[in-house]
Input
Amino acid sequence: MGESIWPMLTQEVLQETNFCTFIFEVCDQDIWRAQDVKKVVYDIVNSKSSLAKQNNFVQNLYDEMA
Output
């Protein structure tokens, strides 16, 4: 298992840019902000067509195929 984890740690997690940005917060990198998951889902659902917003949308697709 170490053979799988070690490359991931050394190539992704332990990179100097990650330490600089996320641990020490001193680098000039993009800052990640926490997202409100409910708001993100709400925004995605509201961007759908009115037909897709219906509770029975998937059932209607099955009915059309039958």
In short: Residues 2-65 form one domain. The chain has a mean pLDDT of 76.
